[in-house]
Amino acid sequence: MRLMLLMCLAWFMTLTCGSGDKRVRVRAPRGSKWWSLAKPGEVSNGLRAPVRKLYNNPSLLPLTKRQRRLVTKNPGAVMAVVSGARMAIDECQHQFRKRRWNCPIRFEGHRSSIFGKIIQKGCRETAFVYSITSAAVAYSVGRACSQGTIQTCSCDNRVHSRPSGEDWEWSGCSDNAKFGHKFSRKFVDVLEKGRDFRYMINLHNNEVGRVHVSNSLRRQCKCHGMSGSCTIKTCWMTLPDFRSIGLALKDRFDGASQVLPENSVRNRGRGKRRFNFSPANSLHKKPGRRDLVYFEDSPNFCDNDSSLGFDGTKGRECNHSSLGVDGCDLMCCGRGFHTEHYVVQDRCQCIFEWCCEVKCKMCTFNRTRSTCL
Ligand SMILES: *[C@@H]1O[C@H](CO)[C@@H](O)[C@H](O)[C@H]1NC(C)=O
Ligand SMILES: *[C@@H]1O[C@H](CO)[C@@H](O)[C@H](O)[C@H]1NC(C)=O
Ligand SMILES: *[C@@H]1O[C@H](CO)[C@@H](O)[C@H](O)[C@H]1NC(C)=O
């Protein structure tokens, strides 16, 4: 009851404070501002302040009160969030480097999201951004636990109570994917409240990202004994490279389910992140826990579109010999492209000389580079 009252009060205050300020409408959803912690430089330097001062640290301004309380209660977690946000950006840009929408980031401007207004849409790209960012927090925190950099968690050796194998035994430190998952839920989902359809979609996609992390734990083993022998083998659970999670989520992006809006959704209860979405195409199966969902078709991302904060593909590099999305025809949306030939000097024909030098020649290479008009 008290919580409800507080929420109403907060809502009322936003309304009254916000009225008269037209720009309020273009604000990024409040719960997504933490992404800007990825900003290089001063933000992360400022966060190394002593723990008791952390809550009021100006670098935490993009966070909500609840998020600030959460990172204050878990000393060390904020640095894991910062590196998670960076991982998410890097991975998004890597996975989309050959596509028209290439996950552009803008750090300037406090009101809009660093990913731009795409996150206020409901298309596949939106789904990917939500899933990769919440996955990255779960991953980064789960890792930080086992590395001992968060004071409130450590290795998750509960998995070690499972039976070991015939020729190996549990030992060592397992990544704490469970803590990471829970932390990411509390931190990332904090403001995706309300009964808005868009929010349900975002909550679902956040959870998809985390489920991919939790399910990616793998057993890793090490041999002990005289050189090369494996008289004792010990194993622990470890998270794979984040790249493989990015790749899996990119696959989910390609196979994302389009769902019908609004009244077709039922909350399945039990955990606020289980929704019963209806597929837009009734022949398709219902999206599962690992499927990204969206409800809006993507824009074509060809031209500068200020309503998206996307610059278009003018000036983007394309591959003139590819027929795929990175090829000049598709990338440049038929506008044509410019090709320049240039010469570079680089080391070549390197040989290893005993001992211990690598000797190379300098060669001239002809290269071409095509960019969209
Ligand atoms: C896109 O358009 C906006 C305003 O319409 C302008 O400020 C911006 O510089 C343009 N960007 C590019 C890359 O042309
Ligand atoms: C360009 O596309 C061709 C054909 O798909 C491919 O073989 C080549 O590696 C690509 N070049 C670059 C730089 O990606
Ligand atoms: C580079 O191109 C020029 C002419 O365009 C040609 O004379 C030269 O042999 C080429 N070099 C190589 C290494 O292919």
TrEMBL record:
The processes (GO biological process) annotated in the record are: canonical Wnt signaling pathway; cell fate commitment; neuron differentiation
- Signal peptide limits: 1-18
Q: Does the keyword Lipoprotein apply?
A: yes
Entry GO terms, CC: extracellular space
Q: Where in the cell is it found?
A: Secreted, Extracellular space, Extracellular matrix
**Which protein family is it in?**
Belongs to the Wnt family.
The entry's function note states: Ligand for members of the frizzled family of seven transmembrane receptors.
The molecule here is called Protein Wnt
